[in-house]
């Protein structure tokens, strides 16, 4: 929009309420109003980028990918300048989809990162290491699993200028971590915090008290506007924010005692693929298992 057209548009929006002000005051009001509108547009752009579009001026390329079978979200993050990229929580059946996307976007996949040892699907880490040679699998040291790189709280994973701080958020499993991108105000919470929910605590060293304390101290203390991206959603939602979860999460807004009571009575059936997923994910998705056993597990999954 040319400046004159923009100003005329702003004048029309401002309407008659400023007609009695002096020309200078009216100009100041319009400029101010226009600045606010323009600023809002910029904020909107940031929000849109964070929902999955490639931002041209943020330095971050971001994609949220979905697995319909396990309702798992996989996230692709890359530095638009250096083209270095990482994947968070890929799923083995969709490793080829992810590898193709990375190739199409001409990215250099550096890390395949897991928020924890998943119980409901096999991670795509091992398969991606085969499809995109040179990438490095990542898991937390506390998970007790095997990976090329084991991270600890306070570590920072970098792809170009994109940085993820590792925060310990145990309770769903002992080794669960949350990755925080402070520059873009986003956090990847794995199963520790789901949208309007949280990870179950009834297996894999799960502990409701530990989960409650971890989520409150490591995630809900982030700034209100930070966007939170979980590893799953079962209702079709894609993203939430610290503010929304602090205000509306039906489990985590309760007291610790009430939370423990809720979690101990969820009565959820075990994940369908738990028996094949856990052994495979402890070695980051088959790559270090003998080929015949890997093929057998993959077939069963
Ligand atoms: N039906 C699914 C498993 C669903 C499930 O148990 N989800 C987990 C995260 S994956 S281990 C969970 O923590 N859910 C919490 C909740 O409140 O739903 C399957 O069979 O795979």
From TrEMBL:
The lineage of its organism: Eukaryota, Metazoa, Ecdysozoa, Arthropoda, Crustacea. The keyword Transmembrane does not apply. It comes from Hyalella azteca. Keywords: Acetylation, Dioxygenase, Iron, Metal-binding, Mitochondrion, Oxidoreductase, Transit peptide. It catalyses: S-sulfanylglutathione + O2 + H2O = sulfite + glutathione + 2 H(+). PANTHER family: PERSULFIDE DIOXYGENASE ETHE1, PERSULFIDE DIOXYGENASE ETHE1, MITOCHONDRIAL. This is Persulfide dioxygenase ETHE1, mitochondrial. The keyword Oxidoreductase applies. Belongs to the metallo-beta-lactamase superfamily. Glyoxalase II family.
